[in-house]
Structures are given as C-alpha cells and as structure tokens.
Amino acid sequence: MTTDERIYVAGPICFFPRGGEIWQARRREAQYYGFTVTLPNDNKRPPAQSKEHGAYLTLKNCRDSINQSTGIIADLENFRGSEPDGGTIYEVGMAYGHDCKCYAFTRDKRPMGVKYNAGTYVDGGILDYKGRKLPHIDLPFGVCVLGACKVIEGTFSDALKAYMCDLEEESKKKAMRGYSLTKDSPKQTIPRGTRPIVYVADIFRYEEDAAEKYAEMKKVLEAQGFDAIVPTDAAPGVPVLEDTGDVMEMVYNQFDHYQQHVRNCDIILANLTDYEGYEPSSDVAFECGMADQLGKKLFAWMEDGRNMVDRIPSHENNQGRMLDANNYSVENNNAPINLMFGASFQIFDGTFENAVEKMKEKLQNV
Amino acid sequence: MIHEEHLYIAGPVCFYPRGNSMWQSYRKEAEFYGAVVELPNDNWDSVPGDSIEEKIINNCDISMRKCTAVLANIENHRGFMPDAGTVFEIGMAYGLGLKCYAYTRDKRAQGAKYFGGTYELDRILDKDGEILMNMDLPFSDCLVGSTKIVEGDFTDCLRVFREDVEEESKQKAVRGRVETFEAPKKNPGKTGKKVVYVGDCRRGPQAEQRHAEMKRILEKYGYEAYTPSDYNVNVPVLQQMDDPYARAYNRFDHYQQHVRDCDIYLCVLDDHRGYEVDSDVAFESGMAYMLEDKKMFGYIESPESMAERTHSTLSESGSPVDINGWSTEEKGYPVNMMWGGTRLFRGMDFEEAVKQMTELLKGEE
Amino acid sequence: MNKDESLYIAGPNCFWPRGGNTLQAYREFSLYHGFKVALPGDPKPDEEKAKEKPWDQQTKKERGANILKNCADSMDASTIIIANLDNYRGYSPDGGTIFEVGMAYAKEAKCYAYTRDIRSTGEKFSGGCWTADELFDEKGRKVPNYDLPFSVDILGSCKVIEGNYFDALNVVMADIKEESKDKAKRAKAVEKLSVEPTVKSDKPIVYFCDFDRYSENAPEKYAEVKALLEKYGFTAYVPTDPCPGVEELDCGEDRYAQVYNEFDRYQQHVRNCDIILADLNDFYGYEPNADVSFECGMAFQLRKKMYAFMDNIGRMIDRVPNKGEENGCKDINDMGVENFDAPVNLMFGSSFKFLDGSMEDVVRKMAEDLKAE
What we know:
By secondary structure, chain A is an alpha/beta fold. Chain A has helices at about 20-30, 50-65, 85-95, 110-115, 145-150, 155-175, 210-225, 245-265, 280-295, 310, 340, 350-365, and strands at about 5-10, 35, 70-75, 100-105, 120, 125, 150-155, 180, 195-200, 225-230, 265-270, 295-300, 315, 320-325, 345-350.
C-alpha cells in the first residue's frame, strides 16, 4: 500500500523500561505499510540549555510533527492510575485541533464501571478510590477521547489495520456515485467583545454540585474583567440533542460542546490537579492540547504544584532517569506535570482564585 | 487438532448479561478443534445436593473429573481480583493434576494495572493502605505458580493450548528425553494433633501479626496450625533467585504443600481489593476441596451477603445484579457459590469461629 | 447500536469437519454483544410444509431449494453481513459465500469480510508462474488484478479485515459507535446509492456475466456473444461495456477508487438487466469466479431471471473428487462436496437454470425457455 498519510504515534511507552524499542517497532510497522511517521522528528535539534529548554524543544518537536500529520494513533493504556497518560491525550487534542484523523487503541474497551478495579460499590453507583463518584460508568473512556477518536480494542497493529481499512473505504467513496460529505468548518460561535473569553477546563464538570461551583468561578473571573465559559455551559451553535438512548450519540454531542468551548475562548484556564492516580483528567488534557494547537493563551492551576519528581515518589537509576515504583519514568523537567503541559502552560500552584489573579497579572505584563 | 483432550471452560461470563452466549461460543470453538468440552451446567437435573450451592459445587466436581485441562478467564471481577469461583475451579483442576491455562487481556504487572494505588519509593499501597504484594507479577502466587497465563482472549488461549498439545505429541518421539515430575504428597504433622492450615490473604509484613494471632488461637484449641506466613518445612526456600516467576513458584510451592499437609483447611473469605475472595485463598480452597481428605471450613467476618455488600438491586427476572448489570449470588449467600461444599461461619470474630469449628468436629468424631 | 443490527454470518465453515461449531460460536459471541443473528442454516420450520413433506422425504433438489429459501429469508432479516473469505478448494473464496455477499449488497446491507491473509494475490498465489511483470495461473491465464488481495466485486462491496471473525466483529462494533457519533455531528455525510436501472430497452436485457472480462481476447469473444444474443432478440451487455450512468473516473493512482469505479460498473449492469446469463465454470480450483458469484447473488436478490452455462452440468459430486455418497461425499480434506443434484453450490444450483452446449446452443435454449414461460 502507498499512501500520503502521515501519522503521529502517541503513547506513554516512552516512560516504560525499554519502551523506546516498542516505539521504534510501531514506527517501523507503520512505515512498512507505506505511512510516513512524523514522530520522532529525526532532524537534529539544538542542544538543550537547561531542563526547561529541553522540555520546550521536545514540545516544539511534537508541535512541528503534529502540523505535518494527517492522522494520529494513540495508546490509551492507563498510566499511574485509571486515566490514560495525560501527555498522550494532549497530543490527541492537538491532532484533533489540526483536523487529523484520530485513532486510539486499548487492551480493554469494557465500560469503566466494569474495569475500574479499586472501586467501592454504593447504591446507584461506584465510588473511586478517592471516594468520588465515577462518572460515566457505562463508557470505556472520557467523553473527549471517545468523541474525537475511533477507539479500537486491541494493539497498535490492530489500530493500524483499522486505519488502513478505513483509508480503502475512503478511496472507494471518491468513486461512489451519490456520496457527498459536507463539512462545517469549525468556527468560533461567540461574537467577540472587548473582554477576553476564558474557558475554565475543569475537572468537576460531572459532580452533582458542579453548577453552584461553576457559578462561583464565573463570578471570580467576571470580577477580574474576563468573560467566562465553563464545561457545563451549552455552546452556542451546538444543539442540545434529546436523549435517544444511543449512548455514543449522546457522548458525541457532549464532546461537541466541549470542543466548541475551546474554539470559542481566547484563553484556557485548566485544572491540572491529579484526577485519577497521578494524571490529569483526560477531558481536560484533551482540551489543553486542542487549545495549544489553536493558538489560545494557556494557563493552568494545580492544587499541588510541586515538581513532578517531588510529587511522585521516585528514585534515580544509573542513567540519571527518575523512576517510580514500577520503574516507569517520572519526568524531571522542573515542572509539576508532563512536559506537554509543563512547557506550554503557565501553571500556578494553589487555588483557582489565586490562579485567576496571577493570570491577570501575567496578561497585563505582556 | 486436539485428540482426547477434555476441556473444562471456566470464567465469570455466566454473571454477565447474555453471558451464556459467550460461554456457548467458547464451547463451540473448542469443539471445532476436536476437544470434548465439559461445561458445569450440562447435567443439572441429575446433580446431587440439597441446596443450589451444593448442587453447583457437585456439578463442577462431576464435570472436572472428566477433564484433562482447564481454560479459565481471569479477567478482573468487581475489583482487582479475578472471579473467585473461577480461581476455585483452577484450584480444583490443579488438585486433580489437570493442565491449567488461563487468559487475561492484561498481563502487565499488578503495580501497573492497579488503579487506586498510592505510590511510595519502591512499593505501592492499595486504597486501604495495604501493600500491593507481587507488584512485579501479573497475578497472585498461586495463579502464577499453577497456571500458564496467556495474554489475549479465549481464542488466543485455545491456540496456545493446541500448540502445546502438538509439542507434547512431538516430545513423545524425541529420543533420549526423560521428563519426570513427581506430584507432591501429604506429609504428616509434627505433633500428632490435627493440622490446620489457615488460608488467609497474604498482605506481606502487615499480615504476619494477624497470622500469628490466628495461630495462637488455633493452638489454644488444640491444633497444630500453619498460615501463609509460615514456610512449609518440606519445601526448600529459594529466596535468592533473581527470576520473579521462579520465586513466585517457590512461594506457591509452600502454599500448595501446606494445603496437602493439612487435615483441616480453614479459609478466610472476606472481600479482598474489591468484592471477591483473594485469589490465593480461592485457589487453595478449590485444591483442598478436590483433595478430599480435608475438612473444609470458611470464615467470613462480615455478616452481609454478597448482594448486600455490592449494593445489588433486583433485575426484572428477580435476581440480584450490581450497578454494571452483572449478577451477584442469590439467596443471601455471602461468597461465590463454589464454596457450597464448605461450612461457613459468618459475622463473628475468628476465635468464635474456631470454637464453633471445634465443637462441630467433636460432634463428628 | 448493536441491538438494532442483525448479522448474517456467511462462510464455507459449514463444509469443514465440525465447522458448524464455528458458526455457532460466532453466533453466540455476537448475541453476547447484543446483536441479532441470522445464520443461513437456521431452521425456520414451516410447520404445515414440514408435515406435508418432512426433510428426509424430500428430493435432494427440494432440499437445496429449501435451504436457499431459508438463506433468502435470513438475508431479508439482516442489516449486516460478515463473510469469511477463506479460500476453498483452490485459490478463490467459496462461491456460495460470495453469492451471499452479492445478495447482501443488493439489499443494501453493510458488507464486511475477513481473511487470514490480506496480502495481494501476487504475493499469496500458489501454483502460479511469475514473469517480470505478469503472473500466470496453472491454466496459463494471466491472473487479473494480482496487486489486489481479492476480486473487484469483493473489494468494491466489502470492508475487508485481516483477522478472524472476532476481529471483524470488533471493527463492526467500532464502526457502529462511529455511526452513532455521526448522528450527533453537525457536519453530515450524505450517502445515497443510485440503485435505479439506468437503461431501458423494448427487448429483454441480458447481462452476460463471465470471467473472460480480464482476458486479452475479451473484445472478440464479447462481440460474438453480443451478436448471438441480439440475433435471438435480446439487448446484450457484457462486463467490459461502459454502463450508462457510471462515469469512467480518472482516479489517478488511487487503486481502491479505481476498483470501486470498476465494481460500480459491474453492479450497475446487474441492476440494469432483466436476465443474467452467467458462466459458472470453475475459475480457480473448483469454484466459480468471485466476481461472477457476487453478480449472481445480486441478481438473485434483485429477482432477475437467471440462466447459467457450464461445460459439465452433471452433478457436482461427479465433478469434484470425493469419497462417495456412502461416506457423506467428503473430499480429500474431509470437506463436504454438496449433494443436491446440482452442478455447483446450492446457492447457484437452486436459483439458476443450467444450460450446456455451444454458446449458440446456450442462447437458443435460453430464448426457448423464456418463450415457454
């Protein structure tokens, strides 16, 4: 097969012992089938001046690669908790923002209610290990991952095969009489005013008291001179569909609101506090990546903003890598979180209110 | 093509909505390749037993004795453990000397696949603050030790099984090759008293104290007592090996020898990391059941039934189901009904259970 | 959603030793995932009929016809077909299976197929003779489309998955989820297949469906055949004819677009005809050509009149070597050779009228038979 497709291969394997080898295997497999693989960028990059600079160069490399890509295949393996690796989902968000075809694979596509292995069963639900009610126990992954990606149960090879199969179908459609595809070019659907619009990409969107909490947050932002959007808002231009009983249809509609919020804002203010285990919420991670790709201003807050190597117990191996108890890498970039966020976002340590204040200062200083 | 192999297909699919279809699917696939399949529900009406749970275990017993191998689904079940009934069946199969195979979609180390962990420097604590043992292995010692574990689905497992059967055939014709394996036998106790082995979950250092207390109580009531914290004197201790699978096998070897050596197997059946019995305990239970020369008792601290603990509601057909729509055990039964042949002590402290057990045993002498 | 879909599971599995088990396994597995399933062999006993003539009192021909009827009923209830493209007694997939794919396509079911080997024909062909730029089969014919894994009609109609039934079902389920998402997408894809005939004629239209479409002497052969058919009062189309309404597209290098365009022409020919006249001679091994099989299935589903010719229209069990009726007509691999008093698989055997002789004999007999109606 020959194809013009250029794919970006994303996943947390770079953090696993010998993960680079799997990474190369995946890359070579895709190349064998005629794909161009856009990451890692083989171009020599300038030497890093510091940890932060190194992280920036890596991120730049990822951004450049996404901009050359037509598709992404992402590994949704859970990472230090039940969520997929936040950096991977960030890349999916970037790819979606770049209008790539998004594919993802997982060994376990059962619904979260079934596969969550540290839950407490209560009347009408399951609590996660932190005692919070698990949202969407009937879905295998977060709303944004499911909305953006075609999720294949299986391995990278399975996802690659599904991708190729779909390419063949696409080719056939070029010759199919009576077939047409109209595409809404995704635009901002809020008229621009004088005040900057902030989208609060927060993790409490599925909690019962989200409405009150978000009303408070909006007040804080408005008092500081911002217009605010929160995840539970309806996005102008996106219909609110009636529940048809088709779960995935409803998921997409929900996702459509979220992704439209990202398009509509000037600034994203994301809550990157650990959601499950030691990773941010996949909805938030996706929105962050998308906001990055669309050139939004990027701010975030974390309740614990210490450096990642201080937050996650880790030891140094003989090559100077910091490793967790499973011998998976803990990034050591002088940042509190995965470099995809660490090198692109201004991250504030502390509360939401504090973050809004600091964000305002930063914006004024620009 | 498989000749002369009788397969026992085990798994929790019977608890899933429409799960019986999945089960039949496995059976038909195995039959296509020439295996004879024994499913537990084949002859329900003729099975002896007064209660459902007795009939269930008797039924499994009858089917298992016709088999040469077990293929088991060890998917996590309502928590971190595989379905305890399935692991019980693997234990039965091992006790009979069957070939044991299992499959899982996730054979990564437990440290990587546990969702609720708190990370420390070189270990992980579970959500109750207990150390996640075997974090570098995919499953518990007894499962790793007794069973060939295939990553994949039933089809993959059956494929590996078929390939192994072919290799076995070839081995018969290899010149100069002699493989011997002597199945371990029962060793007598040291004191002449009744030997009790307490099957309790292995929580690492935290468990040792608990096990010591259990021993003290049992000795007080006149038994020679062992727990998983004890080495079995008849099995060498190979702690210095680098290979985690060899170490796991050695630990398993101690456990299985404890089971063989005891006169009474007393298993502790409280939920472990979720809503299932610990898989080491479940395995030992199945094995002890199949060895026949043991008396079996079960102890559960919780007075609640499985349906109560999992906050089950009644389905349209009137049977209890959990939030995911999976069945939980009926009739207020506290654990998987594979323990139907085990006398249970529920909702009391351990000493009271030992006391009642002792009285029951006296009555039987 | 899965529960809205009904699967038709097709494949040569029923001919394998113990193969019925695999079909049952697929069925149960699909039921587990919430699908409805119709298997070709599902008994739908019409009780009155069964009383009239129980199975063991029927002639072989009647049995074949009843099984085909059964397949047709199952197909009518189905929304998706999943077909096994395993090769069968030769290089081709089982002709009966491809016939069923044709039926499914004609009723606008979603068509999926799976194969354990999706490499190109050039790579996986056995018994061929390779030159620098051609591949010849054991009969010395050029192998058409050796850069494709399967025939044009299969690739045009089906999404082909490398793997087993379970892999295919996995893809089906992922696609169904995408369809659900599509319902909520603000941008819509419009898919309106043209299914109406695009030609009219005062005379009955015959589609001459054979496998010489790929051979070098096709033009001469087809000119003769068309002249014959016209002589006997028919309007004739052959596979290489341009089809009104189907533009010849310039698809550049895009092989699957080219394939689809070619497939589109063939399938429109079937829609346009009143009568299909098919060449059911063995193509590779002991199976008819896959494009021909597909078009026959379509013609059946679209209620066309069906005639076929073969060099030998005697019984299949006399043509395909087997261990005899006393041994269940098994071939050397213990796979079943059908025994329904027909020259070929019952899907064809019970739907076609079979003719033999010279091409003129065939056309004349067909014309006479049509007149007699």
